[in-house]
Amino acid sequence: MTESITSASDKIWSGRFAEPVSDLVKRYTASVFFDRRMWRQDIRGSLAHARMLARQGILAAADLAAIESGMASITNEIEAGTFHWNLDDEDVHLNIEKRLTALVGDAGKRLHTGRSRNDQVATDIRLWLRDSIDEIDGLLRAMQAALLNMAEAHADTPLPGFTHLQVAQPVTFGHHLLAYFEMLRRDRERFADCRKRVNRLPLGAAALAGTTFPIDRESVAHELGFESVCENSLDAVSDRDFAIEFCGAAALVMTHISRFSEELILWMSPRVGFIDLADRFCTGSSIMPQKKNPDVPELARGKTGRVFGHLMGLLTLMKGQPLAYNKDNQEDKEPLFDTADTLMDTLRIFAELVPGIRVKPEAMAAALRQGYATATDLADYLVKKGLPFRDAHEAVARAVRACEIRGCDLADLSVDALREFSPLIADDVHSVLTVAGSLAARDHLGGTAPNQVRAAIVRSRARL
Ligand code: ARG
Questions:
Q1: Entry pTM
Q2: Which of 61, 93, 406, 451 has the highest CB neighbour count under 10 A?
Q3: What fold is seen in the domain 4-113?
């Protein structure tokens, strides 16, 4: 990126200085390498500002017209790749302003009236984040839709539900996938909530104290689609808590994806063999010809750490900064951009990966036969016959120990053999010891009974 950025002196603020900054300082303090990706937001913000200045009689109509046509040319140049980004102009804001002045003369120099780069950059980031949040919401929704489709296909497929990574009780694979659907539902709520606080206009705060010009901030907010204006100028230019919230919301999405990834990796391990991932999401080994590695989920799990790091970085960046704007804040952009990029790429790939999961119901069923998954059902059965739950728990525990010695499952024991553990056990016991019976019995809102899973899918589809 840096190669296309040239250096040619004549800084906008150089009037105050007796000597130019060294090349090293120039490079160290410049942000144009990375903040130029906010150019669209910068131009949008500048145009809204200029139009407000004209409405308020602060800028002549002819100057506004010149600014509008200059910005249109700049837009074309950047889109065409012919715009000349210059390191000496530090950041995206000064690069665009300088070019505007070159194109339209004094009108370009009047644009910055009643404004500072401090409120300008805060506005640009908020516009950029708002766009990003809207895109992320669409991607989260796409992944939810993929999960729902897969859940629907497996509303009846039994899977061992685990606690402590040991077989606990039967669930359906559809029910399991819906757990992730719910996580992503909360993630979308979190971003929607964060968006409210992102969507406030800092412009008008100027450097820190406001401006002496008779500006109309509400009209700028309206033009840019902000819900309201930031009500304190010092806060408007200096705080980045909205960016930290964004990274917090992103860190939680990645947490959820990381948990899902961990399960995919485990399920795909030949030792478990519950699923297979489509070849296009896996890679081979350069030395072991038999390998098919789940690289995509592993990388997603790894990238989660990187997103956590950005959250911690931004918290640390903010901590201890006195009011108002400090140059520290220039460091907010790279972590933010990388967080959004990482999250979006991950969501894009997962929306495609989920439909490529090949489920192996036989392996899931075989695992269920090994873990006494219906032991709780037997205890519940005894409770329904009048035994206190603690006594029922004890009776079933003894039955499980006997099965372990004989190397069989509870369902393999005859009624007579089972009656050794409790005389309350009768001929009807085998219906509760089957996986299908166990699943069907959990028939309430939020339970894993297949008809409940199907009802949850209907509710979830309506919410999408
Ligand atoms: N490039 C700066 C940033 O990203 C813009 C604001 C600079 N303001 C200043 N007074 N140096 O934060």
A1: 0.94
A2: 93
A3: Fumarase C; Chain B, domain 1 (1.10.275)
